[in-house]
Specification:
Blueprint: E1 8-15, E2 20-27, E3 34-39, H1 42-55, E4 60-65, H2 71-76, E5 82-86, H3 89-97, H4 107-120, H5 133-166, H6 170-173, H7 180-188, H8 192-197, H9 200-210, H10 215-227, H11 235-271, H12 276-280, H13 286-297, H14 307-314, E6 319-323, E7 326-330, H15 337-350, H16 355-366, H17 371-392, H18 398-408, H19 412-424
Parallel strand pairs: 1-4, 4-5
Antiparallel strand pairs: 1-2, 2-3, 6-7
Helix pairs in contact: 5-11, 5-13, 7-11, 13-15, 14-17, 15-17, 16-17, 16-19
């Protein structure tokens, strides 16, 4: 939690909207609350900030806004005279329910509530301190990349549904859906009829060009294509399915190109970042997850004062609700979803490269935890390690951590020894980061 900024001379509650923003302002030491409306135009925002500077030349203005990013935040973040307090929508909604049990909502009332939040509870809010430009670029690019991966999953699921209804053989012949080969295959031949009308040499050339099959399996697939019967002969299903398969394949192809562009944009930014070596040192982080870990922590070492803050803010730490004799432990619902997702996915991936991480996960499973609960427990443990390396600017050392486990007499040590014995045995697999 952050403490109130000592030189604040006024508080502002600003309810964001697409066209105009409802605002409330109260100067320190005054009981008068002033109302104003800001139009969403650069010159209007600049004029308003200039008025604040003229009126309050020797202090800073604390502004509560119901968003963590967006046009308004990006416009205000460049002014040193302003202290921004992004308020999560759920926080404001819960605060509103305390006073308006009917569920009534209006922009002016939300502006009043935001003013009250920042005036009375600034010590419980987190002042927003922007990272440097390169770090923010990596943060934004990484988050948008993850959203596009979700879009690709949705499109792939839709494409699978259409193929199962009319052209299920393509699930084998086209290759893994979402790849360049599958998109090209289905764009060219979105139905069994279209594929069977193609010349054998054309199909052969396609597979040879994409390098997807050896000569034996290629001949087998070509024979299958000629002999296969359609799943349905309904013209309506076949026509609509062929159209949707082609369109979805084209969208997936474009999405794949966009993801490559994002990867190409992230890579040089991450390579030039001062913390690149630190995040690259974590087992299994790689070119995708390492920038996401950087995005999760940022570059400002004063943002978090202990690992617990990261665990709670990200939603990895569980919530305990007690009432009388009842006690209920559940995961956090109100949290930055991308942040929680980054830690969760890193923890899941680390099991392949870190023996102790795999041992800890297996230990949780044996205790009765479900898969995702075990991954969250592992992420909770990883955050403490990530935080300390980040705070000290020290790259991660797997062997050093294992030695620390031995000194503490951790039960993971016996499991690690068993893993090492199995890996060293004939036919065993040694984990090694490539």
């Amino acid at each position: 939690m952050s403490s109130p900024i000592p030189d604040v001379v006024a508080w502002v509650g600003l309810d964001w909207a697409d066209q105009e923003h409802q605002g409330r302002l109260q100067a320190v030491g005054s009981s008068q609350v002033e109302s104003f409306v800001l139009v969403q135009r650069p010159e209007a925002l600049q004029g308003w900030v200039s008025q604040l500077r003229t009126r309050f030349p020797f202090g800073r203005v604390a502004i509560a806004v119901e968003q963590a990013r967006g046009a308004l935040i990006y416009a205000l973040m460049t002014y040193d005279s302003l202290v921004l307090y992004p308020v999560p929508p759920k926080t404001l909604a819960d605060y509103r329910k305390a006073f308006f049990s009917s569920g009534a909502k209006s922009d002016p009332e939300d502006a009043d509530l935001l003013l009250e939040l920042v005036r009375c509870h600034a010590d419980r809010l987190r002042a927003w301190q922007p990272d440097d430009t390169r770090t923010r670029q990596i943060q934004m690019l990484s988050e948008q990349r993850r959203k596009l991966v979700d879009d690709r999953t949705r499109l792939t699921n839709r494409l699978t549904t259409w193929l199962k209804a009319s052209f299920p053989q393509a699930l084998e012949w086209a290759g893994e859906l979402g790849t360049a080969q599958a998109c090209a295959f289905l764009t060219r031949w979105p139905s069994l009829a279209a594929l069977q009308q193609a010349r054998r040499s054309q199909v052969c050339h396609f597979y040879l060009h994409h390098g997807g099959k050896d000569s034996a399996s290629l001949e087998f697939s070509l024979d299958q294509i000629r002999q296969t019967q359609p799943l349905t002969s309904d013209p309506a299903v076949l026509q609509v399915s062929a159209l949707m398969v082609r369109l979805l394949a084209q969208q997936l192809s474009a999405l794949g190109s966009t993801l490559q562009e994002l990867d190409q944009a992230i890579a040089p930014l991450f390579a030039q970042h001062p913390d690149q070596a630190l995040w690259d040192s974590f087992p299994g982080a790689g070119p995708v997850l390492a920038p996401r870990l950087l995005a999760a922590f940022g570059a400002d070492r004063q943002r978090y004062h202990e690992a617990r803050e990261v665990q709670q803010f990200s939603g990895i730490a569980p919530v305990t609700a007690k009432s009388g004799k009842s006690c209920w432990v559940h995961w956090r619902w109100a949290c930055p979803k991308f942040l929680r997702q980054s830690f969760h996915e890193f923890a899941a991936h680390s099991r392949r490269w870190s023996p102790w991480a795999r041992a800890y996960y297996e230990q949780q499973i044996e205790k009765g935890a479900e898969h995702h609960a075990a991954i969250r427990a592992l992420a909770f443990k990883w955050i403490r390690i990530l935080y300390r390396c980040w705070k000290d600017r020290t790259p991660y050392d797997e062997q050093r951590y294992v030695r620390a486990l031995r000194r503490r007499g951790s039960p993971l040590v016996n499991r690690l020894q068993t893993q090492a014995a199995l890996s060293a045995a004939p036919g065993g697999t040694m984990l090694k980061k490539t």
